Amino acid sequence: MVRRSHSVLASSGEVFRLIRNGEAVTRADIGRVTGLSRPAVSLRVSELLDHGFVVEHTDGPSTGGRPPVRLGFNAAGGVVLAASLGASRTQIAVCDLAGEPVAAAELTIDVEQGPDTVLTLLMDVWDDLLGQIPAAPIRGVGLGVPATVEFAHGRIQSVRVMASWTGVAIPPLIARRYGVPVFVDNDVNVIAVGEHRAVYHDEVGDMLFVKISTRVGAGVISGGRIQRGALGAAGEIGHIPVRDGDGVLCRCGNVDCLDALVSGTALLAQLVARGRAVDSLADVVALVRAGDAETMALVRRAGRRLGEVVASAVNLLNPAVVVLGGDMADVFEHLVAGVREVVYQRSTALATRNLRITPSKLGPGAGVTGCAAMVLDEILTPEAVDTWLAGNPEPAPLR
Length: 399
Ligand SMILES: [Zn+2]
Fold this sequence. Notes:
Elements: H1 12-21, H2 27-34, H3 38-50, E1 54-57, E2 70-73, E3 79-84, E4 90-96, E5 101-107, H4 115-131, E6 138-145, E7 149-150, E8 155-156, H5 170-178, E9 182-186, H6 187-200, E10 207-212, E11 216-222, E12 225-226, H7 258-262, H8 264-273, H9 281-289, H10 293-317, E13 321-325, H11 332-346, H12 349-352, E14 356-359, H13 366-379, H14 382-391
Parallel strand pairs: 3-6, 6-9, 10-13, 13-14
Antiparallel strand pairs: 1-2, 3-4, 4-5, 7-8, 10-11, 11-12
Zinc ion binds at residues 239, 250, 252, 254, 257, 259-260.
């Protein structure tokens, strides 16, 4: 075998990737795949073992002689901190390196209190959760927020929701306490990633996730990856206007945006205007469950209006699955009936041939699952592992 030249010798991060993917799980395999010498393989594997990225298993298949030591990804070799901040409820978790929550909490935080108050509270809850589990190095932080985020800098872009957060770059505020990489994305993107990872990962590369709660938004997964757009504003379908609206002024300043007509807030307002005694999304859901004809008709109309925009998105993106999530998913049948009616009418035959329109399967837990997946995708790349090892010459302390 031709040994690779020195300049392209596989790094420890590359070796980690091979072990994690299962491409090479013994030292001999690693040597064969990378062309590294035995001492070089040994050095890299030792480094990964010392830092908890991989573990050794000695229960390999018996071939008569001594079984080779097999190497595996060490999901317990650290934790990531995840939180999905919502306008109404916030889910907070500490997850292992496979993205499984090992401690979790849910609480109500008013995001409008601003970054200093909210982030301090959030970090205090993470600290509490960390105190409940065996010590493990913190490797990264993933946060979802109900606002447009410029992903590269974790900077809040929107000016109408979370106004006091506008222009704030969140990562440095959190990295100050934990000293690890911090990634921030908008709440719909992280929920879309969570749903995709947990339910569709191997099966579907193209998915449109639409969240209908107090506001309307979408997450676009194309070719297996979340599409954030140039500045993080991809998927903002809530401010696409629909035809034949009621002339409702949207908080963005335009008229008849999807958000102003079909969000939970909009449905609530429509019921109040009809003299109905409702004051929360839960009341709307209860009315639909009780079979209230007026409410069901409003939800169905909302579904058709949503379907108008989803039909265009389907033509543009040709997803395999459209997932509807958010608090309105509880009245899914009525909403989706309206969505289906319009999508199958308006989208091209090819785009809808195998199209599935389905409710979210993960529900509210998708947010933290997605936050953990987002940060793990970033911190477990070969480059990120090499950066970690270069920046932490000693194995990571247990907090
Ligand atoms: Zn608008």
